[in-house]
Amino acid sequence: MSTPQRCGTGALVALIGLLAAGCGESASTPPRGSAPAPAPSSAGPPRPVNLPEGPARPGTAVVVLVDTSGSMAQPVPDVKGKPRAKNEIAREALAGIVRNTAQWKKDHAGSHLQMGIFNFSSRVNEVLPMGEFDAAKAEAALNKIPHPNGGTAIGLALEEGYKALYRSGCSRKFVVCVTDGENTAGPGPDVVARQLHDQTHGAVQLNFVAFDTKASQFKFLSGVNGHVVEAADGGKLQDELTNIYEKRILAEAPEEK
């Protein structure tokens, strides 16, 4: 009786070996001859972005990209040194920019200026469609920015920002991005920025404020007509945004007679 038991065990082992060799490959194993599945990557391959072709016109267009990922709920000192959520501080700093821009517009009635505002977390949301600057509409849009939640899709935000700028048709185009973290959703901002820079021949100037994070993670900006500065708290954020607008955007905006 012992010999048949050994034969049955050997047959079972042989059957298992056949299944492992091919007949029983798991769903996660790619078929023979096929390329292995690419590893997940936040950067992704470069791809052309379909940019609108609006009617060309003189003037300046600015798109503001505001990070509303979950980490923006974390506190840092505001302009008075009081700990507050980063999203609240960012909204107040941008409201100050809107007020300053409104005053500039009064003093430069002949200048054509458009503005659009997007917030981004894992997705991108348009809170102010690109259009002729209107202080009341811009302030109302800032109040519509949602509370922090989700990941950080900086690359996708850049894509939407460029589309808005090119819908404007304005000859001078600027991106202003306030973010506190690394890209965690969608294509990487370095890949997107290089692709868009090549497509547009560097026609858009990128201005990033690394809010409560290191500017070194955005070093790619130097090669795509971009700049980055750090802001550790509310006072510094306000100062850096003011410098960007006054020294790079509004200071050079041409008068249109």
Question: Are there runs of 5+ residues with pLDDT below 50, and where?
Answer: 1-44
Instruction: Classify the secondary structure makeup into a structural class.
Output: alpha/beta
Per CATH, the superfamily is: von Willebrand factor, type A domain
How many DSSP H or I helices?
A: 6
The amount of helix comes to 25-40%
Largest sheet: 6 strands, mixed
Shape, please? globular
Number of strands: 8
Fraction of residues in β-strands: 15-25%
Number of domains: 1
Name the CATH architecture: 3-Layer(aba) Sandwich
Annotated CATH topology: Rossmann fold
Which CATH class is shown? Alpha Beta
Oligomeric state of the chains in view: single chain
H-E order: HEEEHEEHHEHEEH
Reading side by side through the largest sheet, how are the strands ordered?
A: 5-4-1-6-7-8
Q: Averaging pLDDT over every residue, what do you get?
A: 82
Radius of gyration: 26 Å
Beginning-to-end CA distance, first to last residue: 108 Å
What would you note in describing this structure?
The protein is α/β, with parallel strands linked by helices and 257 residues long. The chain has one domain (60-249): Rossmann fold (3-Layer(aba) Sandwich). Helix content is 37%, strand content 23%. The chain is globular and about 45 Å long. Mean pLDDT is 82; it is low at 1-44.
